[in-house]
Amino acid sequence: ADHLLEYPTSHTEMNWNEFFPAYFKEDGTPVYPDSDVSSVRFLDVGCGYGGLTVSMSKLYPDRLTLGMEIRVKVSSYVHEKIQALRQHGAAAATPEQLAAGKPTLYQNASVMRANTMKHLTRFFGRGQLEKIFFLFPDPHFKRAKHKWRIISPALLDEYAYVLRPGGIVYTISDVLVLHRWMDSHLEAHPMFERVSEEEIENDPAIYLVKNSSEEAQRVDRNGGRKFLAIFRRIVDPDER
Ligand code: SAM
């Protein structure tokens, strides 16, 4: 249950060493300060079995990607998977890479068991994230359950807060009513604007959004459609 989840009182108290030991020292200070790998930049909300988290970390070796997943067994599965991938990554590294002292493959991927609907701002500071992913979230069809949907006006305020200006929210679903819900809430929110088709086509992350997660592969097997809604956190001229 939720009361067993651990979370810091503030993102500044958060020690990421447990999650990214190659990037944070035991006392929690970054190994590479003033760089893009000094904090988590990509967040996979409800990462499930972690297909996107893992493939984003490979595509973007100079960013830290975190998956958040509420189910205990599923998050432990992803944890084990990443540990195994890290071992393979270390074993496959060339002597030159090892001599350069840079982290090997998948050290920049991690998973946390967490309820993103509750504790997001305990983990991330204002403007910290560059990308947030919502891949095939649970539809919660019944009206009484709509409050459990992972996109809502109140939660969009939080996502806008933790995203840097210009940061991107990616949503995808095979459930048309849920897609319309996410799309219309993002469209209506003053801090988000729609990303153009052209920009979407040129975004290397899109292929992974459509294809890398376990749920995307299930939709393919069942011959379902995939609906994308992709929005940018606006650059507000009044913001300092
Ligand atoms: N994104 C993955 C994919 O595309 O394969 C998983 C999709 S699955 C249908 C939705 C996932 O979101 C489930 O694993 C569920 O446990 C997780 N989830 C639901 N609510 C959550 C919450 N509040 N915080 C974190 N994870 C959540």
UniProtKB/TrEMBL annotation:
Its EC number is 2.1.1.33. The active site is at residue 138. It catalyses: guanosine(46) in tRNA + S-adenosyl-L-methionine = N(7)-methylguanosine(46) in tRNA + S-adenosyl-L-homocysteine. It comes from the Eukaryota. Catalyzes the formation of N(7)-methylguanine at position 46 (m7G46) in tRNA. Belongs to the class I-like SAM-binding methyltransferase superfamily. TrmB family. This is tRNA (guanine-N(7)-)-methyltransferase. It comes from Fonticula alba. The chain holds residues 40 to 279 of 319 of the full protein.
